[in-house]
Design brief:
The structure is a single chain. The chain has about 375 residues and is α/β, with parallel strands linked by helices. Helices cover about 30% and strands about 30% of the residues. An eight-stranded mixed beta sheet has the order 1-16-17-15-14-11-12-13, sandwiched between helices. A seven-stranded mixed beta sheet has the order 4-3-2-5-6-7-8, with helices on one face. The chain has a two-stranded antiparallel ribbon with strand order 9-10. Strand 12, helix 7 and strand 13 form a beta-alpha-beta unit. The protein is globular, with a radius of gyration of 22 Å. The mean pLDDT is about 95.
């Protein structure tokens, strides 16, 4: 996203244009009027990453335009980043310029922050990190502690990771009056716009409130939707392939004292094979009872940009209700065109996770015809 695209004074106008563009994609499908959830205009990104550009002893944060990898654009101000990140950026840059050891062969900087007030900085290098680097990084952490209590720093290079503090931050999200805590690991996927993420979860929970039975969830990540949705179903079977995300999800379930969720490490393809009784998976033995004995009437999916593959679409079409969160309206519409023969779209929502871009997050509730 070019920095010139960030125009807070035009936010409402740009959002309206994006909503109209995305709505056109649903032409040919019967859809209700979409509910639209805007973002705050600035300070909404909870994570940010920048390449580090070296000019002699000087360093700067830079970004690159598509197709121009050798033409860096210096970033001196990043208004869409969370306030904590905006505060850390110049302080870290000043420290790097003053410390040859910390900046030597530094390739990339990543910031991660939370609404709960925690933050983490990852420094990525093209060299091996030694005791001298660690000593300087500890001094940097102590310096930042004044303004950012509990800040963690992670140093990375090839096959090496040094953790000063923790390699995760804790987020707290208030969903329908209840607070859920989430452990978010460094370099793992988390929703970038925390406030819009809260709207997404509340929307999904509101639609799930009238449903019953058990829930199957695909692509559960760290339990972002899983934890609050568990309040609306008797049992939840949540699946995820990433080992880090599965670990985080299990830790988050325990931290929130939830007892009706079971996390199984399976891909969407494997879940489809299990549901279609094409394969048996030993990991399913972790369930409290055989898969066939669950009352699975609703499926929740939040797939990557590629959407659901054909076999998974066929599998989910067997559920009474499908709650679908999509980060790519184009692949969502492709999936809906197939599901339209078995399900009707009863609710549609649009969430502006990425202001000033063409990206729109969508939510759909489909119910069997």
């Amino acid at each position: 996203m070019p920095l010139s695209s960030i125009q807070p004074e035009r936010y409402e106008e740009l959002l309206s244009e994006k909503v109209a563009t995305v709505t056109e994609l649903f032409e040919g499908l019967s859809i209700p009027e979409p509910a639209v959830y805007p973002s705050v205009e600035t300070g909404f990104r909870m994570r940010a990453e920048f390449r580090v550009w070296h000019e002699g002893a000087d360093v700067n944060y830079v970004m690159f335009r598509p197709g121009q990898p050798k033409d860096p654009v210096v970033v001196t101000h990043f208004p869409i980043a969370h306030d904590a990140i905006q505060q850390m950026m110049p302080l870290l840059l000043g420290a790097l310029k003053a410390d040859p050891e910390l900046r030597r062969k530094l390739f990339q900087v990543e910031f991660l922050s939370t609404l709960a007030g925690q933050a983490l900085i990852t420094l990525i290098y093209h060299r091996r990190l030694d005791e001298l680097w660690e000593a300087q990084a500890v001094s940097l952490q102590d310096e930042f502690e004044i303004n950012f209590p509990g800040l963690s720093i992670v140093g990375r290079s090839r096959k090496q990771k040094i953790i000063l503090g923790r390699n995760w931050v804790e987020e707290k999200l208030c969903i329908a009056g209840e607070t859920f805590s989430y452990r978010q690991y460094e370099q793992s996927f988390t929703q970038p716009n925390a406030q819009v993420n809260q709207h997404m979860i509340e929307w999904a929970c509101d639609k799930a409130h009238a449903l019953d039975g058990d829930l199957l969830e695909l692509y559960c990540g760290n339990g972002n939707f899983t934890l609050p949705l568990s309040r609306h179903f008797s049992n939840v079977i949540a699946t995820e392939l990433s080992k880090v995300s599965v670990r985080a999800a299990r830790e988050n379930i325990e931290a929130n004292s939830i007892d009706n969720i079971q996390i199984i490490r399976l891909s969407a393809e494997e879940v489809t094979q299990a549901m279609n009784r094409q394969r048996e998976f030993r990991r399913l033995a972790e369930l409290n009872k055989p898969l066939d004995e669950y009352d699975l009437r609703t499926v929740f999916v939040d797939p990557p940009r590629a959407g659901l593959d054909d076999k998974t679409v066929s599998m989910v079409s067997g559920f009474e209700q499908i709650l679908y969160i999509s980060c790519n309206p184009h692949t969502l519409v492709e999936n809906l065109a197939v599901l339209d023969s078995t399900h009707r779209i009863s609710h549609l929502a649009m969430f502006d996770q990425f202001p000033y871009t063409g990206h729109m997050e969508c939510g759909v509730l489909l119910q069997r015809r």
